[in-house]
């Protein structure tokens, strides 16, 4: 890291049932300046997102009980009903096949990454999308 906090002023919800993955993502994103809330399952993730309207969501697709597809469907439905700018959503999974990639984009995730997530790639992706999300939120608020 070069001293520049690339995710400063961003709020990110991380949803992953694997404690080690969740904590490592949280620490890595916080080291880049983000405010991070970590959730262990889809319901916790939905609650966190609805209560804080984050800039981005990083979500594992393979969650217990209700998966990441359920989470994104719930969130996108709520964003439509409440006329909110959609949070940037990144799906992360151990699955490498195109079916998962296509389904995740079709369900409402903007980006797809395989595990283990490459820290530099994830941070760069979040930094790139942060400005667009802030702009869209500002325009909608006019």
Automatic annotation (TrEMBL):
Keywords: Phosphoprotein. The modification 4-aspartylphosphate is found at residue 60. Gene3D superfamilies: 3.40.50.2300. GO terms for biological process: phosphorelay signal transduction system. It comes from the Bacteria. Residues 11-130 form the Response regulatory domain. This is Response regulator.
